[in-house]
Structure formats: structure tokens, C-alpha cells
């Protein structure tokens, strides 16, 4: 795990720390850097988004303050900082250069490509090299994704392709940059060719990064059988689970016979890693050369996440009648979530949904989230539309009402949708329900429809209903729903307005921050066991202070993990239980030069500076989250517990541990 940078503190800070340390029995973990008033000032300026005040610290004589200022600017992402940061990547202190490069990568501004390219060629420090290359990739990827300044994207690609450093550090830097460019959809094959060629000879840290970069590529490279053959020959010998897991995405997109045989071989092998097994199942679902018969046995895997992924994989396969019967037999006694996923998959293959059976199941003795999965299943048939609409409007359980809303929305596009049900009037009724979750679902659904597809009078009614709902929302807590409405209004061309950027509303409690040990640990007691995390108060003081305060208040006690995406995250802490809940305040995003590694703990958000009480833990490295979601902790014990967590499992309590 990458540790925060701590070398170098101001004289005042040193005196305070020494004094405090004596009273704390000289425990090095009993204080944090915010005893230094200058660091508090920088963090406060950052929290208030006061760019000019932070910029003044880039010229400070203390290197640590220059570093902190650069990271503060990375969180703020203000274009006003770009010119000053261009100068700072020439700083005599390498850590300052790395932080400044990271901040430039966060701004996604084309003017930074040229100075970063030049400095990358001359840079000798490892951390700074990687930060500069990654910043180039982020900026170029962001420009490509937004279809702006294509000439700058080409400049960045050329700089990375022609980068002469071919040692392990140079390859790692190019792989990180390529990851961001490939994530944006950049189709050029030069970088992927370069990385695939050197893949077999690289250390594991590079093989992982190359695999992630290749897994994000969407161009024509996979049609090159010579290159893909070389890659799969190397993968056959791979022992690192993370590399194998990332590489399976490459296999899924390569239509070669070699890739199909590799996937089938992996499916038939005894795979102890859940991550690799799930990735293999996903690859099998995408590759047309992998038959359903190779996937069906996975439906009986004791790991529910694996069995559910097998259901998803079978959606894309041709099924013979005997295979459909086999699937039903294998899943007859499976957990309800697997049965629901199987029913959805089989319906796509022509198997009709017995509506009465599933309605009886919904009314049976089910856990909350099993019932929600069954309710959502109703959406696969238009015949459920009227029932789903009525229950969405009248069910007092807000989670069930939202699930019925999802079912109604999906049923609208299915055969059998009742002719007597007016889609527009149904949407109006749901908008008038008043729940923020239902409103957000309806706004997102309406955005998919052009005004031309509905009568003018109904469009006007819907527009007025959206505006009326928008005026009633409570900010900042309901900003996600508000912006869903604004996106829809703007897409229709009525009453154009900017999406809401949440104003500063929750000052950092510095007395609380200073009381939190630098390596404060917390034990999260769940229904599947206990896991421990270490909080990073020095990197994310506002986020950690909020989390600690909520823990002390017992806020998280009894909350559920409402979202679990295998090979990605588990997410919990929502007071509603569906991901739409939050506190009455929002937090500022806090970013530093971290990697989203296995067990990273991040704050969920609906955009910059909208973080609140929901948090997630990553199952495996997820580099695409870096610089987008605040990391405020890492798991130190109990990743096996994280891997066992399923939707609906509970957070019993969170205990702050004493040193």
C-alpha cells in the first residue's frame, strides 16, 4: 500500500508535534500533521476552494508546503492554477514535481500536454516520471472522450510512443498513460503493440498495469492474430491472479480460436480465485466461440457471485432445449437472486415468465434485497406494467416502491405493455409521488425519449412537473436527483440551466481532525465477519473527520450493503438503503497521488464535491476510479470478509480502535 508523504515539516509544526508527542507517550501514530497551522490553512483554503490562496504556497520555501499546495490544487481542479503548475513541474524537489504533475492531470487541460511531454523526457525521479506520464494519459483521454482538441491528443500519443526510456520504470509509465487513453476509446494501436510486445519480460507490477491498459482497449488490435497469439502464450504461463483477471477482458474481445480455447480451459480448471473465475465467466459470455455448455456448470458454484455471473454470460449464448432444462434443474434450489437472474436470462431465450408464480414469490418470506430482485424481474414482461405502476405509487416501503418503478419503466419497452396505460401520464403520477429515488429514475428514463415521440401537451405537463419537483428538492442532500432533472430538461431544450455545483456547506472540524491518530484504525462489524481499515486523516481530513463523527454517533449501525459488483466494489452506508440517501451536508473531494488498489476505501459521490456518508471498498485494483473518488482508508485485515459480502448484508457497527 502506498504510504502518504510525510518528510519535511515546518518549524512551528515540529515544535507542536514534539510537545504533543511527549504527552502521548511518544507514540508516533498518536498525532497527525495538522498540528502544523500552515497545513491547516492550506487544507482549509482547499476546502473553501480558494484557488488564489493555495497558489501562493507554490512558491513557499518549505517543500512540504509546496507539495500540499499542489495536492490541494489537484482536488480543486481549477484551470486558474495551470500556469503556476507548469512552472512547478520544474521544481528542484522531485516530490513537488510529482504532485504538480498529478494536479495538472486532474485539470484535463490541453495546454499541459506540451510542458508535461518535455519534462517527462528530462525527468529522472521515479514517482515524478509516473505522475507525468499518467497526467499525459489522463488529459489526452479526457480530450478524446469529449471530442475536443484532437491535435493535442495526437501530440500526447506521439510523446508516449516515442518516449525512449524502455526500462521497467519507463514501461510502467507508458502503461499507466495508455490505460487512460484506452479508457477514453483511443483507437490507435501503437501503444498497445508496444506494451503487448514487452509484456512477457516485465516484472509483475508492470504486467498488471499492461493488462489493465490492454483490457481497456476497444480498437482493432484484437483482430491481429499474431499479436494476440503472442499475448496468450504469455498468459498461459502467468501466475499472478490480478494480471490473469485483467487479461481475461482481452480474451473476451479477441474472436480468435486461440482465445476461445484459452477461456474454455480456464472454465474447466480449478480456479481458487473468485476474481479470476468471474472474469473468465465474463470473457466467456462475450466470446462467440465459447459454447453455453462450458458455462452452465458454473451455475452451481457455491460462490453466489460466480453463479450470478454465469447467468449473465449465458444471456449471449444460443441455448438448446436440453440446455434450458439443465439450467432450470441446476438452479431450482439456488438462492433467490440466482433464480431471478436465471429467469431473466431464460426469458431472453424465449422461456415465458410465469407472472403469478413470481408474484407469489414476492409475497413470500424473503429478505429485503431478495424481494427487490424479484420485483425488478417483473419488468421483463409488458404484462406486469399496470400492477408495477400501482404498487410503485401505493407501496409504503420506499425500497419496494423504487423497485416497482424500475419494473414499470423496463416493462414499457416489452411486448404486452397495455395499450390503455398512458406512458406520459404514468410518468407524471410517479413524478408526483415525491420520492427522490423515484423522481431520479423517471428523470433518467424521460431523458431517453425525444420530445418528438410524445404529444406536445404531455411534454409540457412533464416539463412543468419536473420544474415543480426541482423547486421542492432540499439541497445539498438531494443534489443527485436535482441534476438528473436538470439533465433531462436540458436534453429536451426547455428552460436550459447549469447543473448544480454544491456550495461550500460543511467546514472541517479541525479540533476533531487533530484528535485523530495518523494511523487511526476502525473495525467494521458486518453480518459476514469483521474487517479492519486504516484511516488516512493526513490525506483526506474532511472525509475522515466526517466518517469518524458518523461512527461515534452510531450512524452506520444497522445500515446495509446495498450495492455489490463482483470484481469491483461493495458499497454501503446509505440511510435509505438504495444509494439515494445522504446526510444534510456534502463534503469536498480530496485527492492525492494514490492507486486504487485491492481494499481501497472510497467515498461514493454523484460528481465533484458531492460526497457524503456512503462508502465503498474495492475487491481488486480499480485504476479508473483514481482521481475521481476520494480514498480515505484502506483495508488492513479482513479482505476475505469483503469478498464474502453480498447485497443485503448488514453493517452491525463500526468501532474506532484505540492504539
Helix tally equals 30
- Over all CA atoms, what is the radius of gyration? 26 Å
Give a short account of the largest sheet. 8 strands, antiparallel, barrel
Helix/strand/pairing class, anyone?
A: alpha+beta
Beta-strand segment tally: 8
How much is the average pLDDT?
92
Q: Major sheet: order of its strands?
A: 1-2-7-5-6-4-3-8
Helix share of residues? 40-55%
Query: Which runs of at least 5 residues are low in confidence (pLDDT < 50)?
Result: 1-27
Assign an overall shape: globular
CA(first)-CA(last) distance: 20 Å
Q: How much of the polypeptide forms β-strand, as a percent range?
A: 5-15%
List strands and helices in order, with pairings:
Blueprint: H1 11-23, H2 37-47, H3 51-55, H4 63-76, H5 82-88, H6 94-107, H7 113-122, H8 126-145, H9 150-161, H10 168-183, H11 190-198, H12 204-215, H13 225-236, H14 241-253, H15 257-268, H16 274-286, H17 304-314, H18 321-331, H19 336-348, H20 355-362, H21 368-377, H22 385-394, H23 398-411, H24 423-431, H25 436-447, H26 456-472, H27 479-492, H28 510-515, E1 521-526, E2 529-535, H29 541-552, E3 559-565, E4 569-572, E5 600-603, E6 615-618, E7 631-637, H30 639-644, E8 650-657
Antiparallel strand pairs: 1-2, 1-8, 2-7, 3-4, 3-8, 4-6, 5-6, 5-7
Helix pairs in contact: 2-4, 4-6, 5-6, 6-8, 7-8, 8-9, 8-10, 10-11, 10-12, 12-14, 14-16, 15-16, 16-17, 17-19, 18-19, 19-21, 20-21, 21-23, 22-23, 23-25, 24-26, 25-27, 26-27
